[in-house]
């Protein structure tokens, strides 16, 4: 229970970071770092002290994850965006599309979960995504909306 509250706090703080939009890598980094930091913090102290260590671990882990998530190089981000377009155009709801950047070893999956139309018939699709970097796997979910015949707008913070 306490761990869930700490993770929720980390996510809330990330979401309230002003008008700046987090990149997918930053989102995944904050979530993964917060979870790992909470776990490490839970190994220290007892009672209220344990909760303080968990909060400190979540905060530091989230900050480190944010910095690490932002370290995805441009080719990783480009591969994710290209893969998201392929998945949105060609993969049915519930099916998983896997991708790998052969230059860096970064890999991930994209699974469209729901397709629907919004204003003026614009196609949108909700999706789950994961990205694996150096033995760490981050997960997120988002929405992609088709903005032209060849382009999708991907929002990983829905």
What's the topology here?
Blueprint: H1 2-15, H2 24-41, H3 48-69, H4 74-90, E1 97-100, E2 107-118, E3 122-133, E4 136-148, E5 151-155
Antiparallel strand pairs: 1-2, 2-3, 3-4, 4-5
Tags for this entry?
5 strands; about 160 residues; 2 domains; alpha+beta; 4 helices; five-stranded antiparallel β-sheet; single chain
Report on this structure.
The chain contains 4 helices and 5 strands; from the N terminus they run ααααβββββ. With 158 residues, the chain is of the alpha+beta class. The protein is elongated, with a radius of gyration of 17 Å. It folds into 2 domains: 2-69; 74-155, no CATH class.
The strand count comes to: 5
Q: Give the spatial strand order of the biggest sheet.
A: 1-2-3-4-5
Shape: elongated
Discrete helix count: 4
Rg: 17 Å
Distance between the termini: 24 Å
Note poorly predicted spans: none
Beta-strand portion reads: 25-35%
- Which percent range fits the helix content? 40-55%
How many discrete structural domains? Answer: 2
Structural class of the helices, strands and pairings? alpha+beta
Mean pLDDT: 75
Task: Summarize the biggest pleated sheet.
Answer: 5 strands, antiparallel
Order of helices and strands: HHHHEEEEE
Write a short abstract of this structure.
The protein contains four helices and five strands, in the order ααααβββββ.
């Amino acid at each position: 229970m306490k761990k869930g509250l700490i993770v929720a706090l980390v996510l809330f703080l990330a979401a309230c970071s002003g008008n700046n939009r987090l990149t997918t890598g930053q989102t995944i980094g904050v979530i993964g770092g917060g979870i790992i930091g909470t776990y490490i913090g839970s190994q220290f102290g007892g009672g209220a002290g344990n909760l303080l260590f968990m909060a400190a671990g979540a905060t530091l882990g989230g900050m480190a994850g944010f910095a690490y998530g932002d370290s995805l190089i441009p080719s990783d981000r480009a591969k994710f965006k290209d893969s998201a377009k392929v998945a949105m155009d060609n993969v049915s709801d519930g099916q998983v599309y896997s991708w790998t950047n052969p230059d860096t070893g970064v890999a991930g999956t994209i699974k469209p979960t729901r397709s629907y139309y919004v204003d003026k018939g614009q196609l949108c699709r909700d999706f789950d995504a994961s990205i694996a970097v150096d033995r760490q796997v981050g997960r997120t979910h988002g929405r992609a909306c088709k903005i032209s015949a060849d382009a999708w707008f991907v929002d990983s913070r829905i």
